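so the lab meeting is tmrw and i was supposed to have these ready like two days ago... anyway. pasting both below. for each one the top line is the aa sequence and the line under it is the structure tokens. i havent really looked at them closely yet so no promises
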Amino acid sequence: MLYGKEHVERYQETDGEEGHEWQGTVTLLLTTTGRRSGKRRTTPLIYQREGDAYLVVASNGGADEAPAWYRNLEADPTAHVQVKGEKFTARARNATPEEKPAYWEKMTAVWPAYDDYQRKTGREIPVVVLEPA
């Protein structure tokens, strides 16, 4: 099973032929710019389509601190996304309070552990909407 840096490298090398499907889900690669370092960082994330946009969850496994990629997007919402061989620039935003319940349900349908992660933390875990720029 691919994980971390190896997951990113195999995904990039094969245009997602290896790494797109992961533990019964599908993943995209999200590249953000480090808010302090200015370096580009790429993270594989479980996703679901929502029209032209992609949904991802900033769970960090239920930790009280949001994942680094999410904090990077807070500083600069422009990101690069790769879904299999498709690569594009996206603008990230949090799901609105009206959107979130349906989007959360859509994401927990493919990765039920998100509900467990939410129970582990007092932080409200955001659903992030990645819209093509």
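ok protien two:
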Amino acid sequence: MDSVRGFALLGLTLTNLFFMANFAYGYVPPVNQDWLESGLSLVTTVFADGRFRTLFCLVFGAALVMQYQQWQKGDDALFMIKSRLCILAVFGVLHGYLLWPGDILLNYALSGLLALMWLNAKHRLLTAALLTLLPVGLLVVLSLLVREPNIDRASAEYATLITSMPVNYAELLSQNVSHFNMMILLIPLATLWNTLGLMLFGMELYERGWFSGQRALPAKWVWILWCASASVSLLLWLNRDTTTGQVLETINWLAALPMALGYLMLLQAITANLPRVSKILAIVGRYSLSLYLLQSLIGIGVFHFVFPAARVLFTRPEYFVFFLALTLVQVILAILLNRAKKTGPAEFILKRCVRHLSRV
């Protein structure tokens, strides 16, 4: 479980960095793209976009069942889980307003609270499928009705965007409030239900043994679905500047699920054949909350204060190098904390708050 969480956490930065530099549009490509730019664009679309977020949702749902079982079920277990989720929501609100409005913690906490209603449900899989499909259907309709502008670095829209970027923390805070308010409005409209559906899938996968090396679905079917997922992403990449591309970008939410299952199987193979790598990922997973917040702290710090010119100059190769460097920093920090037998600062605060609520 910790290995999967660590793998998902490290992968999140590959796409999040684009929106830390430019939250409104994410990555804006240059006019002329060389083979390396195009290749990294394809890799990101097929293997990263939405994949690690989906994997994280599956782990989150599985962890809820595991915690409920470990704490011997009953009202006390539910109280502990609900306390953790409520405090996680507070972390999310502070993170979204003060640092980066692309926060996922608030959405995960709210979805997790709803997911508790299905802890002992018998027809969880059908509910999960409906909750996952319905928001995507809604967004497909919206993508057909609303045409997003295609911009590049030579467009007038991009020039206007650059001039409006914050130059100090007060301006950044003002933009964060505006953007995060918008994100909060989107949660009950679409993202909450999609996340909840994926968490229910995670619960089902945990109970069917997917997180302990067992699988109810034959491996060949997983890889068939994985190839279908990659095909949808490839079509998206080939049609990314068209109306069809906008529709496929939404459908890509669904394509992320079989890719995430493929990653689960890959991590099972790593655990069996490369136990040291699996152990490192598990260590990272145990500090996931602190490292997630650290990703935002470093990303926002670099793009808005240390090297703001990177928002204009960085292309995909530079972002990818930054991603690798940030991954290395997180792994080293997690290993050092583990060797020192220290709890991560965010995990420490979370535990103390839960303990305090338990006394109350």
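from a quick look at the 2nd one: Residues 169-207 form the longest helix (39 residues). The radius of gyration is 20 Å. will dig more after coffe
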